[in-house]
Amino acid sequence: MAQEHAAPIHGEDEGTTTGLNHRKMLMWAFLGSDCMFFGSLIATYLVYQGKSLEGPLPIDVFDIPVTSISTFVLLMSSMSMVLAYSALTKNNMKGFRIWMVSTAIMGATFIGFQVYEFSSFANHHVEVDCVNPGELTKYEQHIFDEGCASGEAHAESHEGLKPQTNLFGTTFYTLTGFHGAHVTLGIVWLLSLLLLSFKKGVITPEKNLDVDLAALYWHFVDVVWIVIFTVVYLFGVFPGF
Amino acid sequence: MSTFPISIPRPVHPTGIWNWITTIDHKRIGILYGVTAFIMFLSGGIEATLMRLQLAGPELDIVSAAVYNQLFTMHGTTMIFLAVMPLSAAFFNFVIPLQIGARDVAFPRLNAFSYWTFLGGALMLKLSWIGGATDAGWFGYAPLTSVAQNPGTGIDFWIISLQVLGIASLAASFNFIVTIINMRAPGMTMMRLPLFTWMSFLTAILLVLAFPVITVALIELTFDRYFMFNFFNVANGGSVVLWQHLFWVFGHPEVYILILPAMGIVSEVLPVFSKKPLFGYKTVVLAGAIIAFMGWMVWSHHMFTVGLGAVANAVFTVTTMLIAVPTGIKVFNWIGTIWGGSIRFNTPMLFSLGFIAMFLLGGISGVMHAVSAHDAQQQDTYFVPAHIHYVLFGGAIMAILSGIFYWFPKYSGKMYSERQGKISFWLIMLGQNVTFFPMHFVGLDGMPRRIYTYVEGMGWEFWNGVSTGGVFILIIGFLLVVVNIGRHWKNGEPAPADPWDARTLEWSIPSPPPEYNFEKIPIVRSLDDWWETKQGLDYKEVPASGGSGNEGHEIHLPQPSYWPIVAAFGLFIAAYGVVFNDLLIPWALAAVGLTIGFIGVYSWSLEPVNDPEEDSTN
């Protein structure tokens, strides 16, 4: 009776009070908790926004087109995840595996972009033309003031942006680093499920909860990235925000 | 049944010590929690005793200033994270499934993992006494925790063990949220939940939302200490006030995490020993929910003297005073409950009545702190320890003692000595007032807290001496509790199923309950269903689990497992690896620990809840 309007039965599901599977409810509670985790990191970032004593600042290092590409890839991976789950429920195991691999690859691509981004920020190199400087950011102005005093043609800095450099570096690497760690964990999870799907009877159209939960987590991590991309990258570069 | 990556046979019918190590029975885990936490409580009491001895007279030299700093920091951290929270968790574990008519919690193995992780974190924190414990206060204010100020490993142990304890608390809270929502017996609607379960539910929600905040704060501190990040580095523009905000955004909900379960226990005990239903059940539930919600809006009252500005201080003054309203409502409901009842003054009842009186006094000084101008006079004086000991000792600990005696027949299957129980109540009641009340006087006289000594002639000698004297009354009281519980657990009279003529489902089953709790799952038709049943409402039950009725009569219990303790052990090793990250090969120990933990979690997630090849019933 209780099972007629309950969620699909997942083996260990023993007619719960709400009809919702235990593990699914736990996942939602965990995601709520994780919201507070990222919320605290983002709050820290916002509190320290514009409080760095020296550069480089977001405007100096961010490359919005590049990060837009990785953002797009990550968001597409969510679609791929949906297709994987959908294929599984339609008993299309081949399609399921293809979309799982594709989701993991897109996640890995995002991580690859992040690694590239981190290393390019850390080795950020600025050169200022002393004769004809044009419009300078605060950081470039600082390099100009430091390096152009004695009549050189160029002033440059190889300092780069490291977590120790300033508050921006500290908060930026911590926030995006923890997001990257979440994505990495998600990739491990997806690949584990992919391997398990070759074992008979572990993942089937009926026993799809494991995939469902991984998908929930994956979408959540994507949504968090939308917030980070907006708050950190877009707000950081476009002062109109 | 093969498991990946390691295949070992499952412990089906373990005996002796293995029975405890691999247990996933919520009742046994509850007992493990209770015993461990009580030992931790006593260790925190020893720390407090040493501090009181040092302050007994002016310019004593029993402990050094450095040791004193470690004592008050470890005392606070121990009592909050290793004593009151896990003592509440002991009751969550033991009582909640019984009260909602369930056979176990939703995730039995996760529950075992919570306990072992808690044990690891607790051991790690207490063992940090070797080599110097943390001395920056339980709130760990920046920059006291910076490497420059505090180069030793004490702070590192504090940070990492709190993270480990946080994982344990979060895992337990997820478990109880799902258990309470999803494992209620048929008919057990949310508004028929016993009050203790309700308050535990709110506590679990608070924990799930508050702990990530301290996790982030501790991560930031870790990065500052280990990798020279700038979060709390003022030289690079960092703000020490950010730590205070993050800490208290966690820390104030934490206060309600400590007190809501206590309120739940009292709301169970008072109706039973007054032979009356709880006065205004819905109001008490709603007041608890409002407290849990408002608990998020008052954190800056810990920071009135930081200089946040008049507006912030005014706002937090008002919200803090407002939160006293639902608390007051509860107190009136409790008084309304005992009003006109046929009261029996058993030990649990005495402790609950003591709770109301002591908690009320603590609440009154709490409202005094709420006024920011008033608070400026009290900040960092002994008036504040007086307040927190009235709410946490007079409040939380008294309620927990009430619970320890109330459920004693249920978890031990024996009866304690009522005479000894009553004597211990009066000793503890007297002892705490002698110890903590004089702190109001010396506090208003200007004695700062967290000082290791004071000079003669400040007018503080007499009341400090009295305070220290009170500690010995408390020690005798608690020794009597230990003797009473310990002796009667072994040799007490066998307890009947329902010795108190109580109201909730846990008393409808034998004492101690069988492993499967309910032979048949009860059908709940009203609030206080067990009481109603005893009054003649005919008792109904459904076979086995769930409502479909065609699932056969077998009781399927989850089987014991090795993996929770393996995963927790891995985490413990990894935690040590983080503190001693430069031992031999940098970070190698942490990597080893994480690998063990990973193997544990992986094998656990691939292990079926019930091994179909094995017989699951005893």
Write structural notes for this entry.
The complex is a heterodimer of chains A (241) and B (618). Chain A has two domains: 22-124 and 160-237, Four Helix Bundle (Hemerythrin (Met), subunit A), CATH 1.20.120; 126-158, no CATH class. Chain A has seven helices and two strands; from the N terminus they run ααααβαβαα. Chain A has helices at 22-47, 58-61, 64-89, 93-122, 138-147, 167-196, 209-237, and strands spanning 126-129, 154-157. In chain A, helix 1 (22-47) packs parallel to helix 7, helix 3 runs antiparallel to helix 4 and helix 4 (93-122) runs antiparallel to helix 6 (167-196). Chain A starts with 21 loop residues before the first helix and ends with a helix. Chain B has one domain: Up-down Bundle (Cytochrome C Oxidase, Chain A), CATH 1.20.210.10. Residues 543-553 and 614-618 of chain B have low confidence and may be disordered. Chain B is 63% helix and 1% strand. The chains are: A mainly alpha (241), B mainly alpha (618). At the A-B interface, helix 1 and helix 6 of A face helix 5, helix 6 and helix 7 of B.
Describe this structure in a few short sentences.
The complex is a heterodimer of chains A (241) and B (618). Chain A has 241 residues and is mostly helical. Chain A has helices at residues 22-47, 58-61, 64-89, 93-122, 138-147, 167-196, 209-237; strands at 126-129, 154-157.
